[in-house]
Amino acid sequence: MIEIKDLHKSYQMGSNSLHVLKGIDFNVKEGELVAIMGSSGSGKSTLLNILGMLDEADSGSYFLDEVPIKGLNETKAAQYRNKFLGFVFQSFNLINYKTALENVALPLYYQRKKRKERIDKAMEYLGKVGLAEWATHLPSELSGGQKQRVAIARALAADPKVLLADEPTGALDSKTSYEVMDIIQSINDEGKTILVVTHEPDIADMCKRIVHLKDGVIVEDKEVEQVRASQYV
Amino acid sequence: MKFIFERDTWQEIYGAIRKNKIRTIITVIGVTWGVFLFVFLLGMAKGLDNSFRSQFNDFATNTMFVWGQQTSIPNEGFKRGRRMQLTLDDVETLESQVDDIEYIAPRNVTGQWGTPPGQFVKGSKSGAFKVFGDYPTIDKVSKKKIFDGGRFINEEDIKYERKVCVIGEDIYKQFYDKDEEAIGDFVRINGIYFKVIGVYKPTQSGFEGDDSIFLPFTTFQTIFNQGKNISWMVITAKPDKNIVNTEATIKTTLKRIHNVHPDDTQAFGSFNLGEEVAKVNGFLSGMRLITYIVGIATLIAGVIAIGNVLLITVKERTREIGVRRALGATPAEVRGQIMLESVLLTFLAGLLGFIFGTLLLWGINTAIGNNDDIPILNPTVDFFAVTGALLSIVLLGTIIGLIPAQKAVSIKPIEALREE
């Protein structure tokens, strides 16, 4: 699903150049649930941004579902993001003046789906994260965990190939974190490929594979025995 | 451009506008105020314009007056200082010789320029008033409003030297009770009985005032023993003629008839309304220009306010825009949405301002009514001016919306999402 070869990325910080990614080789097969771990500054978010086409690598190759991702203009990148990727952010990033349902329906709007279809689909995914009865509520009326579940529903609504979650539990207490991870696991169980960036070991243990990043290189890449989140819920 | 016609686009925009109430209101106020002032200024200028025009309206603007004075150059054996007296013969000559003339009306007056006024007696009351001897033509040049039931002097009155008179509103008020019928009543002027045939109300122009008496020209001639002499004549040129040229032709003709030296500027006095009207017109168009400049400047200020507010909101909405782009909004879609928001806001605000402005004008119009003291008449705005103004603010809104829209797409989605 994801094939990355010798990925490099550096940022210009004034006169200094900060080499963040120093040659990443990384493959993800369909249906995997991968945790990307690393301390702050290890380059994990940069990697996720490149995977998410929000940022572009300086060199190296990146194939997503066998489509080369290179030299995309913003329009093309936007279309690819919409088609291939679902995003879950640490700070939820819901649009605060839209209801839960409208937030979930937004990616479908950019897919030019009919209104009826958007509502139906959004409703379906809201139900999947257990928030059907909160459909008409604004984000400000939801708890942190509920917000993140809406964000997950939104990421799923467009039926992406890959779900990218950047510290999805970073702003949540552990109980809600496990609820969110439970949902992520159940989505993965249905066959969705998911990448989770986290620095919390217990969250990483709930994935099937852990990739450790340190100073811009992968130092460890191992399959793990998945800890089911449902037992904590 | 297809997305402009899609319901979904508008729903997105409606959502964004509705949910950002404060900025929407602030934005709208700026442009609403601008258009409101624009409409108000234009309306008031138009009202002033109408008012000035109405003063001339009842007066054919292509009109001149000519009267006799004293010569200043000796000519053909006549010494200087000879008094010029215009006569009915002059009128005839001019009428036959000068093609430019549309109407020519000789007039006689007593009670002006040192001549004794007429004695008006009704019952036991009496008073002294200016008396004019006029042809019906004068009514074509200087229109007077005649109250219901009455009429002005007609050709029959002239022909039969009828002893009839038209009196001013003020005389009516002085001599008659309220609701008392004046028409058909007999009054005495200089000891002779006249039948009142009409009561006139003066228009704002003219120097007859509302306390004059009009008699048929021929009757006046006989009673005041004028012979063929006339006080002055009023001449209206044909619509396609320049009154200034006509004035010159007429004076030249008169000088020839009366053996006056061609260079004598003193022999005949004249005055034409054309020049006066031109002056007022110049003033009015100057005022209109100022109105437009001020109005358009206000509009621009309003639209810039919109651009400013949108720019701030784009900054506020950086994150939202970042999210939208992460979810698959293309730069064109983001740009289109921001611009449409700008256009929609300016348009709605403009419409609102137009409605308020029109309401105010209507209110002013109602409040003033027919009060002649306030020089505002029927303040309206030109439909095309308003449409043009609305179109141009929509255009300006589009242009000004480009700036925040460009800013919105120039931020990389990754940076937008990082924004705290």
TrEMBL record, chain A:
GO terms for molecular function: ATP binding; ATP hydrolysis activity; transmembrane transporter activity. One of its GO terms (cellular component) is membrane protein complex. InterPro entries: AAA+_ATPase, ABC_transporter-like_ATP-bd, ABC_transporter-like_CS, MacB-like_ATP-bd, P-loop_NTPase. Keywords: ATP-binding, Nucleotide-binding, Translocase, Transport. Residues 2-233 form the ABC transporter domain. Pfam families: ABC_tran. Belongs to the ABC transporter superfamily. Macrolide exporter (TC 3.A.1.122) family. This is Macrolide ABC transporter ATP-binding protein.
From TrEMBL, chain B:
InterPro entries: ABC3_permease_C, MacB_PCD, Macrolide_Exporter_MacB. It comes from the Bacteria. Its main location: membrane. Residues 24-251 form the MacB-like periplasmic core domain. The chain crosses the membrane at residues 25-45, 289-314, 343-363, 383-403. One of its GO terms (cellular component) is plasma membrane. Residues 293-411 form the ABC3 transporter permease C-terminal domain. GO terms for molecular function: ATP binding; transmembrane transporter activity. It is a multi-pass membrane protein. Belongs to the ABC-4 integral membrane protein family. This is Multidrug ABC transporter ATP-binding protein.
